[in-house]
Design brief:
- By secondary structure, the protein is mostly beta strands.
- Helices cover 5% and strands 40% of the residues.
- The protein is built from 2 helices and 14 strands.
- The strands form 4 sheets. Strands 5, 6, 9, 10 and 12 form a 5-stranded antiparallel β-sheet that branches.
- A hairpin with a 2-residue loop joins strand 1 and strand 2.
- The longest helix is centred in the C-terminal third of the chain and has 6 residues.
- The protein starts with 25 loop residues before the first strand and ends with a strand.
- 25% of the residues are buried.
């Protein structure tokens, strides 16, 4: 009879999993210029002033594809503080009419093809297509018109934007929109 001995030895090579998180950052552009938090002073010399609104998906290292939405927030500054105009903004064809507390009107002149590239729901304009790194959305707003030049002294239009990764139905889960063939639609 004999003894049998066995020595088992295992070793594995070290594996490195290099994970690089995606980056998502956007900037608001007004009249072709990157703005500081969506606030650009409007021209006070005429009743209509250019205010072309776009959002850029920044072109940083590891930037990812994104969907973008924009909210336009009109306010009127009074000596007592800020007041909102009409709270619910509803596009009518290619413009939005805002009524100030004293009865004057401001017209937000949307781009003539805005509804081809954007959709509107519950206060937000959703850019329908994915915005790739380094690209801008299509123009949403072209200009602003006031019924009286004096309204420029109190009127402010703040532009807010949100972005969310285009992968894994994130926009559907977070924003409640539908995605079909890479395009946002409102259910």
């Amino acid at each position: 009879a004999g003894d049998t001995s066995a020595f088992f030895s295992t070793s594995t090579a070290t594996k490195n999993n290099n994970f690089v998180p995606g980056v998502l950052s956007t900037s608001i552009f007004e009249n072709g210029v990157r703005t500081n938090e969506g606030t650009m002073v409007l021209n006070h010399e005429t009743q209509t002033t250019q205010k072309m609104i776009q959002v850029e998906n920044s072109n940083h290292l590891n930037e990812i594809d994104t969907y973008v939405r924009v909210m336009l927030v009109p306010t009127f500054r009074t000596p007592e503080g800020s007041e909102a105009g009409n709270i619910f903004l509803e596009p009518m064809s290619n413009y939005i009419l805002v009524t100030e507390p004293e009865g004057g009107t401001i017209t937000l002149n949307l781009n003539s093809s805005w509804s081809v590239h954007w959709t509107y729901s519950n206060g937000y304009f959703y850019h329908k297509a994915i915005v790739h790194p380094g690209e801008l959305t299509h123009v949403l707003l072209n200009s602003v018109t006031v019924s009286e030049i004096d309204l420029w002294e109190t009127f402010r239009l703040e532009v807010l934007s949100d972005a969310i990764q285009a992968e894994n139905s994130a926009a559907n889960a977070a924003w409640g929109v539908d995605i079909s063939s890479g395009q946002i639609t409102i259910p």
